[in-house]
């Protein structure tokens, strides 16, 4: 969610972040050189105009003070014409700077967005467990937009401000060094104001940033779970929680902007005091003929322009700091360690015979190990069901097989090859997944099925749709396969969404199939359809079925019962029932629940 200009904390390592940002601006070095040239030339032209106008004033003054009015209008016209040319030149060069920096900013942020998107695809799943979606969205949208704004506006102002300050200081010294000292006297006062007000503003900027990230997360959660919130009458609590964060954001944002905005009026006061002092002492010098009236007029203009870069710097400095902090947040993501690189491809015989071994595997999401010395052998073409109470480690086993998490000990082998030595893309290309929580993107039903294999032909997609019973309900829709699913695919039923994910797995034609409680969210009739479709899908494939309803796995080649990250029992349904162990307890508890219903 965008909030316009984002307020963020002061960067931790400014030099490092600036160097990284300059690396992405390297391809625009020629354009930046043109901006610097235009800025120098434009500043030179701009600081000449007050002196030219001063000469015009002096000419008029000389003409009217002599006997009669003897003004050299030809010379005056020439001076004014030259001044007009300079003003037009300054305007053209300013436009040129803005146009070029717009190109530079968009080119730089375009490269950053591409790198960030590429990086997100290579980050381990554990990274997303530790970082909220709201915060990552804020980095990808708000922070990068903040960088674009700074490069387009603030950076140009900073460059021209520094050049203007130096140029005006030099030309003022040629007019009167005494008056220049008075003009320079305002600098310490301005810096004192910046030093006094900036820390207070920055403190509130930091608080605002933290609250904004939290609020983004709350809003995202609320929208995703709006049906649950309404079902449990949780609207008031959701609004109350939102208002608490929003109120705190208002307080910190108000303070940040108040203290940040208070710098300008205070600096204007000091500037005006300096202006009055220059006018008084300058008038005395004019009456003493120490300085011409035209030079005095020019100096007053220069004194106003002289303080502008300081005012601009104080005004944009917080913006520059916040932008660098935004860049730092982006680079923090880009500097994260990728998923481990792979060394070898899966051997050719992998596609012919898929045997999977878990050999003394150890793993934990934290320092506490969930699995210790876990071993399991799955033969080619075997259907293995995995059951157990919540938290037993069922989904963890599946995540480790797909290398969404890295094991801390032992080995997982496919056909004798450690999966850590396989190319991840090749591994995933041969593993199909149908999950409990269906994921479909905004697009047509045809495109969602084709997502399993982008190279699949239309006939292959239709065949997969028929095998998974998608074809039966698609033709009842007005647009058929061209029906566009909305953001949450809520314009079709949960069961229909699940059938589409099965069709997607058919199109992918994987050698290893993972079904993670794929029927737990549907009614009995739809479950029967899904079960029939899944039986076709499981044929001649090595498969893992994470089951909640035990009725779906009676025919499994092997049932693995997990408890506390370890194997409690293995065997077929009849064998495990006869053993009267953990599996039997789970079975009877489900039977009692069904009877109660």
The stretches of 5 or more residues where confidence is low (pLDDT under 50) are: 1-8, 344-352
Number of helices: 19
Q: What's the CATH class label of the domain at 14-334? A: Mainly Alpha
Secondary-structure-derived class = alpha/beta
Per the CATH scheme, the topology name of the domain at 14-334 is ABC transporter transmembrane region fold
The description of the largest β-sheet is: 6 strands, mixed
The N- and C-terminal alpha carbons lie at a distance of 44 Å
Anisotropy-based shape = elongated
Query: What percentage of residues falls in helices of 4 or more residues?
Result: 55-70%
Strand fraction? 5-15%
Domain ABC transmembrane type-1: 34-322
Transmembrane segments: 78-96, 155-173
InterPro entries: AAA+_ATPase, ABC1_TM_dom, ABC_transporter-like_ATP-bd, ABC_transporter-like_CS, Type_1_exporter
Keywords: ATP-binding, Cell membrane, Membrane, Nucleotide-binding, Transmembrane, Transmembrane helix, Transport
Question: What report would you give on this structure?
Answer:
The chain has 597 residues and is an alpha/beta fold. The protein has a domain at 14-334: Up-down Bundle (ABC transporter transmembrane region fold). Helices cover 64% and strands 10% of the residues. The protein has 19 helices and twelve strands. The strands form three sheets. Strands 6-9-10-3-11-12 form a six-stranded mixed sheet, sandwiched between helices. A four-stranded antiparallel sheet has the order 2-1-4-5, with no helix packed on it. A two-stranded antiparallel ribbon has the order 7-8. The radius of gyration is 36 Å and the shape is elongated. It starts with 13 loop residues before the first helix and ends with a helix. The model is unreliable at 1-8 and 344-352 (pLDDT under 50). Residues 34-322 form the ABC transmembrane type-1 domain. One of its GO terms (cellular component) is plasma membrane. It is found in: Cell membrane. One of its GO terms (molecular function) is ABC-type oligopeptide transporter activity. Keywords: ATP-binding, Cell membrane, Membrane, Nucleotide-binding, Transmembrane, Transmembrane helix, Transport.
